[in-house]
Amino acid sequence: MGVRHNRIVMELLSLGLPTEDYAVFGSGPLLAHGLRSDVRDLDVLARGRAWERALRYGTPRIPPSGNGRMVVLFDGRIEIFDEWVSADWNVDELIDSADIVDGIRFIPLATVLRWKKSVSRAKDRQDVTAIEQSLRTGA
Fold first, then answer.
1. pLDDT digits (tens, 9 = 90+) for 34-89
2. Burial label, 75 (beta-carbon count in 10 A; 0-12, 13-18, 19+)
3. Distance, CA of 124 to chain centre
């Protein structure tokens, strides 16, 4: 069964965002690559038409990072960002370099690993280990 059958992914797809203008970041790529069976929410990086469409669904607010804006949908299960956590992350490069799984763009695991290591949160330790093992084994 593909990632498209996950409840939160189906909610994301229901928004009709143009696929070339967004990519799933955070823990979503672990779901797409089978390293997690479920996620609490999806962090979505959006630009252009996808960001414009997201603004139709919710009012933008300042994200916890303080960088850019975010729209929170589906009781917090979908968070759409127009920037990532700092100016060090180029939105266009991130989206353009995304892996495509089941027709959905997901930030590559190596990039997710770099981000999760940089924020160094206790809740990400298990993800870091899973990604490192996956990248080592080529799974």
1. 888 888 999 999 999 999 999 999 999 999 889 999 999 999 999 999 999 888 88
2. exposed
3. 14
